[in-house]
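ok trying this again, last paste got cut off
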Amino acid sequence: MKDVFELAQHDLLEAGGISTQELSRLMGELVSHQIDYGDLYFQSTYSESWALEEGIIKGGSFDIDRGVGVRAISGEKTGFAYADDIIFLALRDAIHAANSIVKHGGEHPVQAFKKKPGHQLYEPINPLYSFPEQDKVALLQRIDQYVRKKEPRAVQVSVSLAGEYDTVLILDSEGNQAADVRPLVRLHISLIVEHNGRRESGSSGGGGRFDYQHFLVGDLAFEYADEAIRQALINLEAIDAPAGAMPVVLGPGWPGVLLHEAVGHGMEGDFNRKGISIYSNRIGEKIASHLCTIVDNGTLPQRRGSLNIDDEGVPTQNNVLVENGVLKQYLLDKKNAKLMGLTSTGNGRRESYAHVPLPRMTNTYMLPGQSFPDEIIASIKKGLYAVNFGGGQVDITSGKFVFSASEAYLIENGKIGAPVKGATLIGNGPDVLNKISMVGNDLKLDQGVGVCGKDGQSVPVGVGQPTLRVDELTVGGTRTSHE
């Protein structure tokens, strides 16, 4: 495996003509006795996207973004500035701007930076070069033709391919140096089918920290296409969803996004330090059914939400958030950890060099239980089986959420019945956790499509869960449950 430190220094420092000696001197300017911590975050990102509609390439882009973010922390105050070019003068100006929040106490030279290695969860490869351009276009065209041939009722097909090659170098006032080279790719397929004047849609896709060749292993790209077709055809048959309080079974995999939103965000350190989360000051308390163990694990190989190091240079970890229903810990970056008298959990993440780090999730999921999925379905006389989710909203302070189910079915007499449309799930995160009475043995992670937003920043994440039974949840639909 290539040395990530050499790759990062060559791409980020040598290209800008910046020496490590100059960095040490500049870091000395950043650090004064009034500053608790400071860091430099160098980043170079090469990204591309391809989009095909109606058999024609309708969109394409290639971008290069390079820059450095400078941060100075003093207590709860953060001075931050960035430069969108990696050259000495721009870096020096950014350091002076970030340091303006406190009075200078003189220069403090920093000793030679020591390398802090991270994990090796993915290869430091450039996925953009793993496929010639003509092959990328040909793959999108093949998928389009495959969908149209397999499903003649498809009236619109869209296929997109995106890749990113991200290099980061982090140096801090404690003399640490960390580096990472992060590949990321994604393939997405959507279609609209029409039958007897009714139109419905379906979509599927996946991705992770590998190259484009991954989508051709075992015809994975065409498995995504099959799944998108299946969803669209199911929606053609869907009837109106019931409404009211009822037992709900959440399917494995992507429905874990409900845990991510309704539970995971409430575990992030900044919300808990400020006392605004529903979970604030509750470490050691029972907050969920004893069947629930929830983790945030940034160390899963090649997963979309995984990182060798977080964006503060700390190796990612497998953090147990809830164990057998008891709240064990929060997700922390360096700033919030220090203010809370704790240590970072490797969850300091930022969208880019132009953003400050925040405590964020990586891959968040519930561990499997003992029940078989069929057993869970059979335990319900009348309820709802939610397999896939669309959008949702959550209130961190109260834990209340609303999610739309993009694929759901009636459960009648212990068996999966007709598909339904228009179902929304309405509830409260802690309340749902305490109403989980059965946990499946079929843990599944999402296919690598998740994006999480917070404070205007977006980062790639992963979610997952086994099949779950929630004894009662409010379902919003278009007909009452007794109809």
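PB: full thing came through this time. The CA atoms of residues 319 and 340 lie 17 Å apart.
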